[in-house]
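Researcher: Before we compare anything, I want clean individual predictions. No alignment, no superposition, just each chain on its own. First chain goes here; please echo the sequence and then give the structure tokens.
Model: Echoing the first chain and its structure:
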Amino acid sequence: MSEFNRGIMKFDNADSPLAITLSAIFVLGTIGVLLWWGYTVAYL
């Protein structure tokens, strides 16, 4: 059992490159949107 197939990642192929890539895009995209939103609100 791989380390990624434990905890909240209890599904098959949780450590597949596709799942990791999609998760990374989602997390980084969310951070980017929050930074953009904060910048636009702070410097109107």
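Researcher: Okay. Second chain, same rules.
Model: Second chain and its structure:
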Amino acid sequence: MKTKIPKSLMSLLVVPVHSDAAVSNSPLSYLIGGIIALLIMGYLIYTLLRPDKF
């Protein structure tokens, strides 16, 4: 049976249990994620307020 998920996407979804990506729960990763989330939220608010520039 053929799956509908491409193999390249499947390789991104599968993370070994003992890899660095699976256990990176340090406060630094939360801080970086929060900064990225604030930047994205600021960009979205800016595009909502000034839609004529995009």
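Researcher: What stands out in the second chain?
Model: The radius of gyration is 18 Å. Additionally, The chain has a mean pLDDT of 75.
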